[in-house]
Every structure is written in C-alpha cells, then in structure tokens.
Amino acid sequence: MEKERIAVGLDIGTTKIVAMIGKKNEYGKLEILGIGKSKSLGVARGVVNNITQTIQSIQQAILEAENDSGYKIKDVVVGIAGQHIRSIQHSDYISRANPEEVIGERDIQMLIDQVNKLAMLPGEEIIHVLPQEFKIDGQSEIKEPIGMYGGRLESSFHVVVGQASSIRNVGRCIQSSGIELSGLTLEPLASADAVLSQEEKEAGVALIDIGGGTTDLAIFKDGIIRHTAVIPFGGNVITEDIKEGCSIIEKQAELLKVKFGSAWPGENKDNEIVSIPGLRGREPKEISLKNLSKIIHARVVEIVEQVFAEIRSYGHEDPRKKLIAGIVLTGGGAQLQHIKQLVEYITGMDTRIGYPNEHLAGNSDEEISSPLYATAVGLVMNSIENSTQSAVKHHQEVLSNAVSRTSHEHQQQAPVVEVEQEKVPETTETKIRRSFFDKYVDKIKEFLDNAE
User: What is the pTM of this model?
Assistant: First the structure.
C-alpha cells in the first residue's frame, strides 16, 4: 500500500500566479483540492523583474490555496517560460565498448550527459534534453532502445535552452516564499500534458498557449515533442493597444477585451456602442465595438502570424511532418471570441480550444476546466509524477510539530486514507525527463544555498 500523494503546481504568469493542489482519485483522474490565485506583480513577459513583489504574489496565492484546501504546502513544481527560452535540434552518438551487451539506461544517460556538455551562449543553460528517435548501428526510427544490441547508439534531441539567471531568480522567489522547489517544467509542455490527447500527439498537433505576457508553442508528432518556441507577446499587448486606441485606463481596457472583445470585426454592427464611465467628473466615453474588434484583430493577427512562422520553420508542409490534428488553442487568450475562426482563416489548419478537463475528475469546478488553468493543471500532473508528498493536512502538520493544541474541528476531520496507487509503466522519455530534472533542480538548490 502506498500513501496517496498530494501534488502542488505553481504557475508564475505575467498576469496571474496560480497555486493548485490536487491528487489522483481511484480512477486515475486528477481531483483538485484547492486553488489560489493572485495578481502577478513583478513578472514581465514570463520573466521575474522584481523579486520582492513576486515573492508577495506567490505567498498570497499559496496562502489562498492552503485555506481553500486545508493542506499546508511543502514543495511545488514550477512552470518556466519567458522570452529567453529557445530550442535547438541536435544529434549525438556514443560508441559502446561491448556491442554484445544489451543497451541499458546507463547508455542512454551517457548519451544525454554528452548533449548536456554542448557549448551554449554566455549566460545560457540547457533546461530540457528530450530524445526524439534513436538509431542503433544505422537502424533508424527506434523509440525504445533499452534491451536491444548494438555498438553505435545515436539519437536526435530536442534541446530547450534558457537564461540561467532568469531560472535562478524563480528559484530564489520560491525559496524566499518559504517553500521548496521540487521540479521545473517548461510551461508549453505542462499545458500540453493537460489539454492534448495521446492520439493528437501521435497524429501531429501544434499547441498554442496564449498567456498574458507570452505565447508558447509546442509541436508534437508521432507522440514526440518536435519543436518549442516562446513568442514575447500575449494578451497584455492587446490590452495595451485598446488602452492607447480608445484613450482609457488599463483596468477598463482589460474589462472591455474580456466582456465585449472579438477577434473578428465583421461580427460587430456599426451601431453597437458601449459606454464607459469617465474619469473623475468627466463625461462617460462611448466606444464602438467594431473599432474595439479592429484593434484586437490587428494584434491577434500579428501574434498568430508569428506562431505560424514557427510552425512553418518546423516544416509542417513536408508530408512526413504534417500536423493532422491541426492546432489546439489554450491559455487565457483562447477565451477571446472568434479567435478559433481567425486562427483557422490565417493558418488553414483545423483548430479547437483546449480545455484541461480530459484529465480532471468529473466533479471538478467548472472554473478549473477553463483554458486559463491549463498550465496549472499540467504542473499538478507533473508534480504527481515526482512522487513527493507536496502538502500535508493542516492538523497533520500541527501533530508533526509536536504542538498539542488541536482544535475540535481538526479532530473531527477524517484520517488520510491510504490508496493503492496504480503503477504506470514509465517510458524512456519520462525517465529521462525525470532524472535530468532532478539533477537540474538540485543544481539550482545548490546554487541558491551557496549564494546565501
């Protein structure tokens, strides 16, 4: 018997910070126990630019999630994004000393360690090393090399690179908020885990996550991640354009975008007008919805075209790289009216809105299954894979601290039930992702400890 594991994901976005606590139920679905969100201060385009404000925002989201769930958070899996993230394709090989021995995890680890020694630009570090397909003695398209024989083991890799200082700043914020960092995940990968099905990843799909400060792209084909990119524009630039174009304050611009905004100007009639209260003692302002949609349309077209340029650079026009499942839109920006139709019009590809409800338990709150929380749900799923107990019941924590004052309410709470966890066989890719990340997180912790 294995104790049920409580997992915590922390999505540090440009507009909001979300802390989400969850566990797997008996059907293997994700049950969300608590959620906390706060306005993100100190983060611009996915990068921390004010440590103090970011710590305060994280603490507020953590506290809200703890109060909502009745659990005390110990550690979190954090999503990383930002305009500093880039990806490269790289191939490497090792010659094995004894081809008569079967290939094991040690050989694959040797190959990965070799890729980790790649020379990067000053200040950059390798974050993810994701194997694509393996080749053994010239035999290609091998997905699972373990257990096979061969002298030359070769693989193509998808290598994700980022600014070391940006990632360490995130680590510093987590540590200063009084919690531990148990894992790091690239945000487009977390969103993909939450909203894409295995069939879509096999068929070929582009996931576009439109956040507040950045738009993230992840392309999958044959079940393998093929391309990732971060475009430094998101919902915030649309709000900024509305603010400038209509001469109103940011709060009103955001409200206009969410309530009345559309990415397709043709949908609005010329006489549709919305009135906005004027600033202190001034006349109310009348704004035409058609003009509003024109402003939004221009900026969304720009974002989509940049993403589409990335999809083209991956080579989706090549029949072998064709993305049969088309595009999946998620993130807060995916809630904009008519955005699906606009993306289909620009790219000519089938498009759907991605909701993270596929992996959520049936009784989940409707709000949680919004595209807005796709990344947070994906991070909780990642945290479950980490096998750590990321949060404990408040009354358990009180007991463990040997404090005798136990409230009547806490005494009434049911004990934690031990649930048999179903063992999911791990693929080489998930093992590699895990072992590499453990080392990377340890490296960050070591850096932060030494910097004290």
Answer: 0.85
